[in-house]
Design a protein that fits this description.
Strand content: 5-15%
Distance between the termini: 40 Å
Number of strands: 14
Radius of gyration: 30 Å
Structural class: alpha+beta
Number of helices: 23
Amino acid sequence: MLFVVGAMFAGSAAGTVEVKDSDQLPGEVHESLKILEDAGIDEPAGETVLVQSAASGPKATAPEFRAAVQQVIDAVNKTGAVTDVVSPYEAETVSDDGRSALVQFSMKGDPETAYERVEPVLEAVEGVQKQHQGELVVEEIGSASMNKTFEDAFGSDFKKAEYSAVPVAFGILLIAFGALVAALLPVMLAITAIMATFGLVGLVSHVQPMSETANSVMLLVGLAVGVDYCLFYLRREREERQKGRDGRTALEIAAATSGRAVLVSGITVIVAMSGMLFTGLTEFEAMGIASLMVVAVAMVGSVTVLPALLSLLGERVEKGRVPFLNRIKRVDGHGNGESRVWKAVLTRVLRAPKTALALAAGVLLAIALPAVGMNTANLTLDQEFGDSLPIVQTYDRVNAAFPGGSDPAQVVVRADDIDSPEVQGAIADFKQRALDSGASKGPVEIVTHARENIAVIDVPLVGGSDQDRAEKSLVMLRDEIRPATLGQIDGVQAPIGGQVAASKDFNDKLVGAVVPVFAFVVVFAFLLMLMCFRSLTIAITSIVLNLLSVGAAYGILTIVFQHGWGAGLVGAEGVGAIISWLPLFLFVILFGLSMDYHVFVVSRIREARAQGRTTREAIAHGVITTAGVVTSAAVIMVAVFAIFGTLSMQSMKQMGVGLAAAVLIDATVIRGVLLPAVMALLDDKNWYLPRWLRWLPDMTHDEAPSGPERLEQADVPGHGGERISV
């Protein structure tokens, strides 16, 4: 507790350094933002009011249209919250058909907090709209108004999801244990681990800046592993007590078995999370560091604080029994946990392991197959939020009338003398060629900051919200027009940023990171399994089974969100793509979390094997006695992740569905069918370690529980159908 309080106090005192806008994105977008940042130029939060008539309505030159435009200008000026209001007739922001016009202005003050001050402006624009109801469309859109809309619609929604995760986990634990104290312990361990890590994150942020996204991911991962580790440990300690052992012996056995499994699992998860550091993307690096830190804190707490609490509580861990609640796991009079459902499944798996392997692997491969054609993309505004929000409809109207106007490319030109004739000529040439080439239909706006020797050119891209077409226009600007104009002047820098560029540069960087991240995670997880179980076979099968689980999750994402099968059940019709960052994110998270169950089950099987049981006896013992705790842990994870699948943002839906589906598959098909089937077929080959690898450090530390082991007869067939003792 001193550590938790100390970490929180130190983090609070040090404060948290947030990731800068310029560091969030790679490539030319980073360069353009860095130039503005270094020059101290804060791009104000730009807002736009669309004034639009119907096909049969007045054109922009009509007196009533001009009057509406002037009313907008007067209304926004009157709020005192805006500056640099520009009429569409001055800026030539009238559409080709003459029925749409844009009034542009900027919000005063810090652009980061502009959404907090935009409400009076929105109300003023709404007032003008009411005066022209049925005649004209008068709607506002911009960075401040969009941020406010999304904050109102989804900010509280997201927070509720985070906060509801803890009560959901506690409720499931209460049902699983049937005792208030026992259910509270895993939740308290997870919460204290998260609290301590929040403090540590503040300290670490001075070296690696952090973000809100990293904190949210850390909370999810911390809750998942914190509850899991405590559940594994507590379940084993209770089991040993119910076998008649005294409290100290039960704790020692739990430490030597489940405690070791927690350490192996924790280190494996930390290694997986470290894979995010190889992306070269600041947001991923922040998520990786925050996640591995919370796993480390939860892991250390599970093998120190938890046994101390269990020692202090003794039998009082059973206090607060809730009437009428049955445990998911039934424990017999000898303390042997039996799960009737999984016992029945395992009976059939061990009776015909080849059939079970073929069926389970075939089903998962069939589910994973659609992932081969997975289409990844940065979701457009209407894909991310649907058409339920009025501002999304405004976005579509602006893009239809002014293609690319909502998300223009931003060229940041820095020169030794921005006002020199050569530089000004190159800028003018760049503007003209952008229009002549068809990359932009205009209007191209140029803002010069003479004192800083910087010019900012906003170029609406042909293609608008069509990402593929807009990217082609961007590539034309970067590869053809810029080299022929601005690139001819010595000492001129002209990186091209903007939303479309940000999407392209991010995706390019992400694609380049896939191979090193996958290789790092797989290779190091393999080496850890090899050293911890002293078995080449276990290491290989662990990796293959986890990859199969991740592949099936990818397949489900593709089926639901890309092909639309069952999409209506999660409110995802019409998305047609998987958000670009999700596959890599899911791989790292799922590969780490799925190792929890794998290490726990295989450790129990290996422990039984070390006590002298045959391989099939060990499989039956390990799977059946861990089924209840794995089921409880999986139900908690699936429930927590499913909460995020109910959010309105499509990216959150995809993340929640992907995580929930993968954990469900992992805890059922993988651990309950494929793992025992594969191990049963391999038999003694499970423990194969070639002579040339025996130099590896021995991290097994096998310990049979002290005292005589009671072997109870279980209805699980061995070779030829004979009964085996469990």
